[in-house]
Specification:
Length: about 270
């Protein structure tokens, strides 16, 4: 092969690469632009208005902020720990009955292990109340503000729920029944004690208006291993009694003086 032909064949790949270069640059530019847009998205996962309606707290990108609702408009302030040392989970915000404090869950102390904290509504250092080992969820203040109830699965390495990840099981696999129990935390001392029966899995609960009892949705046995997927279909009007099996969740106690009644919501049957 002549030297001229060799030079021609060598030039063809170079021309192909030079033609691809603008395309690759355009792809990188599109990806960079997309990543910038995604990083600018603000993700709000929770919001809670104070009992007196003067403030609202919310969780944005795993951090809790608060702002005043009344005029004059004030900029929101960060309620909790600075995340510059690393991302912390902050969730499940709950106002005290008088609106002076905010309870929340966070894994500040140990990654993956949520604990209960309380912070003044005006800001300041948050106080850690619990040293639990297991899944923790749904803090609820007592009506008098002296205690906070939680749902706790003692010894569980994962949060409850059908979409929560769990550790891989190896070796001899057997079922381990872990019950989610109502646990009461004293706000002054931080002392915690379980209240609901040890063989009962509590899904949801609410305080009675006088703070002396709870309404709850619960079941015996393992409560986190039987989940159903419902098929979404257009609703159809139908006369007569419902054929759905009796089911209820999200209990809510009525206010005084009719504190003995319980409101329940009946969801559609799962298929």
């Amino acid at each position: 092969m002549s030297k001229g032909m060799k030079r021609l064949f060598a030039a063809v790949p170079m021309l192909a690469l030079s033609a691809l270069a603008p395309s690759r640059a355009a792809t990188r530019s599109s990806i960079d632009s997309l990543m910038e847009e995604l990083s600018a998205v603000r993700r709000f996962t929770e919001a809670a208005v104070s009992p007196d309606g003067t403030r609202v707290a919310w969780v944005e990108s795993l951090a809790i902020s608060v702002t005043d609702l009344g005029p004059p408009a004030a900029p929101p302030w960060r309620m909790t720990k600075d995340t510059s040392a690393g991302p912390y989970v902050e969730r499940d915000i709950a106002w005290s009955p008088d609106g002076s404090r905010l309870a929340f869950l966070s894994d500040w102390e140990k990654a993956g292990q949520l604990q209960l904290y309380v912070v003044a509504a005006g800001g300041g250092a948050a106080r850690k109340l619990t040293s639990l080992a297991g899944a923790v969820a749904q803090p609820r203040w007592s009506p008098d503000g002296t205690a906070i109830a939680l749902l706790v699965i003692d010894g569980s390495a994962r949060a409850a729920g059908p979409l929560e990840p769990g550790a891989a099981k190896i070796g001899v696999i057997e079922e381990q029944v872990l019950e989610q129990r109502i646990t009461l935390v004293d706000v002054a001392s931080g002392g915690a004690r379980p209240l609901s029966p040890a063989d009962l899995y509590v899904y949801e609960y609410d305080w009675s208006p006088d703070g002396r009892s709870f309404a709850a949705t619960a079941a015996h046995g393992s409560g986190d291993n039987n989940w159903y997927v419902a098929e979404s279909r257009p609703p159809r009007a139908k006369r007569g009694p419902s054929s759905n099996p009796p089911s209820s969740n999200r209990p809510c106690r009525s206010p005084p003086p009719a504190g003995r009644r319980t409101a329940r919501r009946s969801p559609s049957s799962a298929g």
